Amino acid sequence: MTRTIAILLAACLAAPRAAEAAGPQSADVSAAFGNTLLTIDPDGRSRKIWLQPDGTWTGLSRRGLDLAGKWTVKGDKVCLTQSKPRLPGSMCERFPPQPGASLQTKAQGKTVQLKLVKGRVTD
């Protein structure tokens, strides 16, 4: 179950921007600051993730348990490591580029919706 949380949290993490004229595409996570990234499972239950500009993130699991870790940008993806509860390794993924946007991804064989919501949603 904890591994599932980590995979779905990681699935939330990259906001692509247009590639610069002479350079590769790079994730721009600034739209996530002050907003909530939801990972919504097929059953409708969701996790909430909040990225901070200092490279940390916090969140709430499907059950309302506290989550936390650090994030970094790698190309057009954002990678999360999870320290609360502690999980080894990191997971990298793209995520919606602006509040109101969403996309779908696969996590452990399930289609998961990633949605960036304006403001800090806690319920």
TrEMBL record:
Keywords: Signal. Residues 1-21 form the signal peptide. This is DUF995 domain-containing protein. It comes from Phenylobacterium terrae. The lineage of its organism: Bacteria, Pseudomonadati, Pseudomonadota, Alphaproteobacteria, Caulobacterales.
